[in-house]
Amino acid sequence: MIKKRRLGIFKSYDPRTKLHILLMYLVLTLASWNIWSLLVSVVMSALLILLLWDGVQAVLGQAIELLSIELLIGIICIIFLPTATGLFITFKLLIFTIVYLLIMRSMKQGELLDGLAEGFGLRAKTAKTMMLMLDFLPKIYREKKRGRKAQRARGVDPDSGNIIDRFRENMLLAIPNIKYAYTRTLRQSESMKKRQYLSVIRRNSIYEMKLNWVDKVISLIFMAMMIGGIVLMIML
Asked: Could you give the CA distance from residue 164 to residue 176 in angstroms, rounded to a whole number?
C-alpha cells in the first residue's frame, strides 16, 4: 500500500527519494569548505531536521555518546589543524550524524533494502551489503533501547543518578551494544544468505513503490541546493 505523500511529512516519501536526499546531503557536506557553501549545507540540514523534527529528541538521546566522541575529535582537529578547518570538520561531523540517524530512523529495513535495489539499480547481493552497512549504526541504538527496556523490566531506572553517572554508564554499555549489533548483523546476513538473497536476479519489492509529484518536487529542491552549494564552493 502506497503511503499518502505530503511535502511536510518526510516519513511518507518513497524510500528511493529518502536515499537520494541522503546521498545529495552527503555530497554537499563533503563539498562545503567555504562559508557560503557551508551556509547552503546548514539550510539543507535545518530543512531536513524540520521535516524530521518528531525524531530529534529520540536521536539526540540515543546518540549522545557518539556525538560526544565526535565533539572530542573536533576539538583535536581544531588544535592540530587550522582553526577554520577544525571548526568545519567538527560542525559537519555532528550535523551529518544527526541528519543521517534521522533519515535512517524514518525507514524500515525492508524499505531501505528496496530503496537501494530500485533507487540505485543494485543487484541483490550489493543491496544487501549496503543495507547492512547503512543500518549498523541505527542497529546499535536499537540495542541500546532494548537494553534500557530490559533494565526497566527488572526494576532498574536507567535514567537515575546525575548526568555524569548516566553518561559514564552509557559509555560503559556502548561496547556491549556494538558487540550485540555486530552479532545481529552477522545473523541477519546469514539468514538472508540461507533464503537465497545472494541471487543475481532482481528481487521483488516488499513495499510497493511509486514516485509521485511530492517525491519529484522535494528531490528537485534538494538537488538545486546541492548543485548551488557546489557551485558556490567552486566559484568562491
From this structure: 20
